[in-house]
Queue: 2 jobs
Job 1
Amino acid sequence: MQIKLAKKYGFCFGVKRAIQIAEKTKNSITLGPLIHNPKEISRLEVKFGVRVEEDTQMIKNGEHVIIRTHGIPKGDLEYLKTKDVQITDATCPYVTKPQEIVEFMSKEGYQIIIFGDKTHPEVKGVMSYSTTQPIVVSSLEELKEAKIGKKIALVSQTTKQANNLLQIASYLITHCYEARIFNTICNATLDNQESARELSKEVDVMIVVGGKTSSNTKQLLNIALQNCTDSYLVEDENDLDMRWFEGKNICGITAGASTPDWIIDKVKEKIQSL
Amino acid sequence: MQIKLAKKYGFCFGVKRAIQIAEKTKNSITLGPLIHNPKEISRLEVKFGVRVEEDTQMIKNGEHVIIRTHGIPKGDLEYLKTKDVQITDATCPYVTKPQEIVEFMSKEGYQIIIFGDKTHPEVKGVMSYSTTQPIVVSSLEELKEAKIGKKIALVSQTTKQANNLLQIASYLITHCYEARIFNTICNATLDNQESARELSKEVDVMIVVGGKTSSNTKQLLNIALQNCTDSYLVEDENDLDMRWFEGKNICGITAGASTPDWIIDKVKEKIQSL
C-alpha cells in the first residue's frame, strides 16, 4: 500500500501552544478538554497530571486552571477570577480575536451574527462576549429564518469552511445596509482543508485521523468525501478496518488540528504493514 | 403587437426629485447633465431655461447652479462655494451616502474599494471624497490585479448589479481580515432590474428605453439580453426599427431610471401602431 500524506495536516499553532503550556503546568486542571483529542488528553493526564474538570464549581481554591484552546464563556472566567486559583490562558489567539470583536461590535450597536455550531465550546465562548443577544447560524437556511437588523457584524467559528462563510456573507450584504465581515476562519484550518481536498483527488482511500468531537476533523472528512467516497475518520490505529483497503493501491492520510504526530505515526505504520 | 410593460421601470426617486428642483429653478445651470437622458435635458432647457455647463470655470458670479443627480467631485463643489453663486444640491441621497461613507472610512484608516466605472460621473464624485487613494474596479478580474490591505471598506456605484457586487465582496472577505461592506446599490435600480429580468422571459422582443450613456439603462439591456436575444436599446421612438418586430407577437418594454414617461409613451404608441 502506497501512502501519501497531505501537504499540511495535524497540529495547528494554537494546539501546539496549549500542549506546551499544559506540559509545563503539571498537576493542573483544564476546564473542559484542552483540545478535542481524547488520546492526547489521556497522555497529558498520565504523564503530566493534567486533569479535566467540566464544572467551575468543582474547582477548589489553590488549584491551577488552564483555559482550553476553544476558550470558555466570559461568565465562567469571571467566576474563576473571584476564587483563589491561578489561571493560565491557553485560548488560541485566533479564538480570542472573535471574542474581542463580538464584545466591541455589540457595544457599538452592531447586531452580532456568528457562523458556527451553537453547541461547540468555541462558539459558546464567543457568544458570551456579546453584550446583546447574538444570532448563531450553522447554515444559510438558518439565517433565512432569523430577523436581522440594518447593521450587522459577522464572525465565524475558526474551523468553518470559507465557501460557507461566503454564502452567509452574501445573504447579509444583500439584506443589510452595512455588513461588517470579519474573516475569523483560521489559516491553519484552511491550509489543512486545501491539502485534504488536493490529496483526496489522487488516492483510492483516504484516512482522516482525529477526535470524533473535533469540528475541524469532521470538516476534513466532509471535504475528503467530496472527491473520494472511501474516506474514513479514525481516532487511532485501532479504528482502522482492514476491509477499507482491499483492492486499493494508494492511501491518503490527513489529520485534524488537534491530532498529535504520535497517533498519526501509529496509523501510518499499521496501514504500511498491510 | 401585444405590449407588456415591466412591473417597475423608469424614473427613480432621485431623478424625480432632481427634475422637480430643475423645473422650480428656472434659468439655472447644471454642472454636467442633470440626468443621463438627452431628450429630457433638452426639454428642461427649452421649457425652463436650464442649461448644461461642463466646466466650473465657466460659471459666472450671480448664477444659480444645480448639482446633478450623480453628484460632482468634492473639489468642484468647494471651488463653486468660493464663488458668488447660489447652489442647489440635486445629488441623489443614495449617491450622497457612498460619498459620506468613503470620506469617513478613509479617515478611519480603511482602504477604500469602489465597485464601479472610473469614468462615470457618480464614481468620479464618490472617489473624490476619499482622503486616501481609492481602488476603483469594474470587475473581479481588475480587483485581482490590485494590492489590497487588511482592512477595507467597499461601496458600490448605485446602479451596479448585486451579484457582481457579491463576487467582489467574496474575494475581499477571503483576502482581508476585515471587510466592511456597504450595500449602496439603489433599490429602485434593483427593482427595475428584477422586473426587466422577469418580463424578458415572457416576450419575443424587448425594448429598453433610455439614454445611451446611462449606466442603469445599459444594465437593463444586458439583463434583458440574457433571456431575450431580441432586446434593443432606444433613446426614443425614432430609434425603433420596424424589422425588429417582424414575426413577433409580444413586445416587452422597460426603461432606465432617467427615462421620462413622455418618451416611454411615445415608444409604446409607435409600437402599438405597427
Note: The domain at 94-181 of chain B is CATH 3.40.1010.20 (Cobalt-precorrin-4 Transmethylase; domain 1).
Job 2
Amino acid sequence: MRVLGVDPGLTRCGVGVVEGVAGRPLTMIGVGVVRTRADDELGRRLVAVEQGIEQWLDEHRPDRVAVERVFSQHNVRTVMGTAQASAVAILCASRRGIPVALHTPSEVKAAVTGSGRADKAQVGAMVTRLLRLAAPPKPADAADALALAICHIWRAPAQNRLQQAVALHTSRGASGPAGPHTPHPSKGRTA
Amino acid sequence: MRVLGVDPGLTRCGVGVVEGVAGRPLTMIGVGVVRTRADDELGRRLVAVEQGIEQWLDEHRPDRVAVERVFSQHNVRTVMGTAQASAVAILCASRRGIPVALHTPSEVKAAVTGSGRADKAQVGAMVTRLLRLAAPPKPADAADALALAICHIWRAPAQNRLQQAVALHTSRGASGPAGPHTPHPSKGRTA
C-alpha cells in the first residue's frame, strides 16, 4: 500500500509518500512541502495548494491519502487556513476516487511514538528511525506528513476489519448504523 | 457587473446571481442551493460542492464571486464544514481567474438592511424588496447568497477606490507592504 500523508496548511503544506504494509519495514518514496506566499490572496493560495497536491498525486499515484483531522479549538487565525488547505487536499484525492482517511494529531503521535502527547522532536526521531533515514525530514510539516502516512498504514488493518464487521452486521439487517450495542431507550433513566 | 454570491455550507450552500451597478435597480439572474448529503463522506461532499459551483459558474459567467467570510468563533462543529465549503467555492472561482471578495455577515446585513445586527427575516425582506421578487427566496441560505451579491455590488465602488489609492501609494515607493506608518525599530523599547 502506498500512502500520501498530508499535513495541511496554507503557508506550508507537508506531503510525504510511504509504501509498505503493517508489520514490515516501511519505505519512504518522497517527502516535501507545498508552499504558498502569505502575502498572496486566498484564492491564489488555494489554487497553488491544489496544483501542488495534484503534482504529488500525478507523480506518486498513492492508493490512499491520509490527511490530518483539523480541530477548531486551536489558534483561531491559523485554523481557518488549515481547514481550507485540508479541504483542497481531500477534494483533489476524492475527485480521483482515491480513498481519504483523516487521523487526529494524537492518533498520529500515538501510532509512531507510543504516546499521543509526544513532541515534534520525538515524532521526527521516530519517523527517521522507522523509515531508516539519515536525518529527520525538515521542516516539521514534512516529518508530520510522513508520520500521517505511517499511521495510516499501521491503522489500516484494524480499520478495515472494523468496516468489514460493520458492513457484515448491516447486511444482516441489524437495527441501523448505531450497531448492536445501542442501549435500550428505556434504560439509563432509572435514577 | 454580474456577481455570484455564495453562502458557504456543506449541507446547504446558498448561491445567487445578481446583476447591476451601485445606484441603479438590481436584477436577480438566478438563485438556488447546492446540497450534499450529511451522511456522505467528506470527500464526496466536497466534490459535490465543487460540481455545483462549477455548474453555476458555467451557466451564469459572473464577473465577480462574493463569498461569506468565515469566522471560527461560531459553532465548532459547523465552522469546519463552512470553511471547507468556502475553500472549494473560492478555489473554483480563482481557478478561472474570477476575482473573489469576502464579506463578513455583519457587512452584508449592514449593506442590505442598514444594521449589522439584522435578523434573517429582515435580510430576506430587504432582498425581496431590492430585487423586486414576489416572495422571499427560500431557504435562508439562498436569500443570504443574494444579499452577499448585492452587498458586493454596492461596496465595489468604494473598494475599487481604496485599492487604486493603495496601488498608487505603493507605486510611489512607500516603505514596503506595512506602509509608511511602521514605527522605527529603535522606538518602543524606551521603558
Note: Chain B has one domain: 2-171.
